[in-house]
Design a protein that fits this description.
234 residues; alpha/beta; Rossmann fold; 2 domains; six-stranded mixed β-sheet; four-stranded antiparallel β-sheet; 8 helices; 10 strands
Amino acid sequence: MNISLKNLSHEYDIEVLDQLELELEDVSSVALIGVSGSGKSTLLRLMSGIEKPTRGLIKVNDTLTSLKAYKKRVGFVFQYHNLFPHLTLERNITLILEKTRNVPKEKAVEIAQKNLQALQLGDQMHKLPKNVSGGQAQRASIARALSLDPDVIFLDEPTASLDPILTHEVLMAVKKLRELGKDFVFATHVISFVRDFADYVVFMEKGKIVEHGKPNILENPKTAAFKDYMQKVH
């Protein structure tokens, strides 16, 4: 996976990202870390094409993220599973396949069941989200993203608000994505997850990229901001 950020800025009422520059080649798993409000989730949404930047350019795999064709090649897993509450886990997937990819119903069911089973949810697929655990609901959300057969999957704090056991469930599901050869970019506070799964780390603070590099930067932060962050998360 190649990622290019050039003079990237984004604002809502205030500036959230400030002139980011980054060039990465041949990475498969990028972790975005930093305190809440540092800009991680905003950057993730821009890189996935959910939002368009105020200024600057973003390319992933040499394709502008604003292009419709790009958006069909990525999957997104939200911080809170974002499943339709009135639909079963299976139907949460088949509906998206039918409506956004024009997949025939029988084929959509086949794809949904395959991916739910891959994430150990075969016995939960006919339940509503409220009748499964938080970890299972988040894994179903990952299965939904995986069902679109994306080139890249973006995950925004996939273990937010989960207890340690459910966090482990979700992290094992992400490991499954890697085994399937998927590239992914994720925002997280779980440093053990970063060490285990990332091959590149980007530390952000106040809308800027402060440090970035291979995961060994976690052991030897250069800036005061990164040192302070690592002390707090440990």
